[in-house]
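Sequence in, structure out.
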Amino acid sequence: MNIDIITVVPDILSGPFSHSIMKRAQDKGLLKVNVINLRDYTTYARAQVDDYPFGGGAGMVMMIEPLANAVESLQKDKTYDDVIFLTPDGETFNQKIANTLSLKKNLLLICGHYKGVDQRFRDHFITREISVGDYVLSGGELAAAILTDAIGRLIPGVLNDETSALSDSFQDNLLAPPVYTRPETFRDWKVPEVLMSGNHKLIDEWRHEESVKRTQQRRPDLLD
């Protein structure tokens, strides 16, 4: 899988993909992440990529020309399944969307910045708009890192135990059940006996019941 990310501050993304699962995914050749500096595609002086909004108002707006230049240049070498704009007013990202996107071959993520991007770019180049939550970040870079991590870990072969992702929270609209590890007893706090029973049928039933219970308590909206 290939994920290209267009940003005006590429240094922000130098860390998230250089460690842990995302690094292993790339080392295995299962995921390729390319961080692209938007300023390399502007024709304006001093690598300008933003300007004042028409009609007045606070803040700056990302110009359409550098963005269009970048996307069209990248599209000469590959066809994207989706060109995704990270924006607070997009559809809210969730596990279902992550599952769907993990089946794609090529994705292009556009990191918003300043007060947003020229609407004409959104109208003519973007195929999907995604938000990571009902709050505003300084830019789309952290949102792009979240999407890439959530998507990348679902690619077959990325996790050592491929069934691990299937038991994550939000798969099947349930939160994950409680988990325990050694020691079996700590300060008189014991691991539930069913987990020590070796009876996998009973363990699966317990985990499902605990998932439903936790979801009812913490996220009842997922059960509607």
